[in-house]
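Record passed on underneath.
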Amino acid sequence: MFARLRSDIQCILERDPAARSTWEVVTCYPGLHAIWLHRPAHWCWNHGFKWLGRFISHLARWFTGIEIHPGARIGERVFFDHAMGTVVGETAEIGDGCTIYQGVTLGGTSLYKGTKRHPTLGRDVVVSAGAKVLGGFEVGDGAKIGSNAVVIKPVPAGATAVGIPARIIPSKTGASADVTEDARPKFTAYGITQEDDPLSQAMRGLIDKTGSQEHQIALLWQAIEKLACAQRGDCVPEDAAREEHFEADKLNQLVGK
């Protein structure tokens, strides 16, 4: 038991640079308190003391601002960072090493009792602030959910989900999670970086393609002008198509390149 408590504290010290000491984490981190209060609530729920489990979770919500149903399953080294307003449903499952930020909802879309209504998060999943993961599907190991995303379908391992409804971006490495040079999973605070926005990626691709096409058209016009001059002994009238006006660099800066 004490090893698990130390693991709970250590995962916060590793992932939050604002955490300066063990004492500060134990006394000032509501995400840790929510985890510790959930465990007796979950035990009560699984042993037939349903009301007591709900009452403990109700007290935890009042003290921490984090609402975790006592039926939810939470793995080891899970970090609720800030997490005010976070809601975790009854049949939700959170894998080892997950990080969940404020305003997250792991919710259900079915009204039928006894069914799997809430999502299952794999290992080392990051769910960013305000994200809503709705339904009884799986989010693969190492996946990242962007801020305010609304996820209503499964997310493959290592992928990133952003937008409303969420669009899925495959892992860059093709593995279960993006990793660092020493083969350790790479932790990305708040889930995504600028390069994870699929709309920006699409716009940058279109901009680069358009700039390349304009350059090729200008070269063609220049070649035609040289041929015309060689045949007629004079130059063809100046045409704007021989000059490049497409400002690819400026447009790429606007979309965040």
